[in-house]
């Protein structure tokens, strides 16, 4: 499902998850200082997994882009290098 999202949407979702992760860490720290049990600790792992999945999709896209960029570049020859040096 993430692969169907646009890059802009994935970046927006990444920052929403980042804010959620920071909120959860703040809540966990408050619970720790008040000697309370952190409710639903599995939420942190869900956010972490979601962020990792987004990062994977963006990394795949970057690799494909770099591969296509290299494939579309004209092959360099020794003549081209000599012209640049002159």
Automatic annotation (TrEMBL):
Compartment(s): Mitochondrion
GO-annotated biological processes: mitochondrial translation
Q: Which organism is it from?
A: Aphanomyces astaci
Position of the signal peptide: none
Q: Which GO terms describe its cellular component?
A: mitochondrial large ribosomal subunit
* Database matches in InterPro entries: MRP-L47_sf (IPR038340), Ribosomal_uL29 (IPR001854), Ribosomal_uL29_mit (IPR010729), Ribosomal_uL29_sf (IPR036049)
Query: Molecular function terms in GO for this entry?
Result: structural constituent of ribosome
Protein name, UniProt field = Large ribosomal subunit protein uL29m
Q: Where is this region: Disordered?
A: 67-86
Name of a matching Pfam family:
MRP-L47
Give the record's family classification: Belongs to the universal ribosomal protein uL29 family.
- What are the UniProt keywords, alphabetically? Mitochondrion, Ribonucleoprotein, Ribosomal protein
Composition bias, Acidic residues = 77-86
Top-level taxon of the source organism: Eukaryota
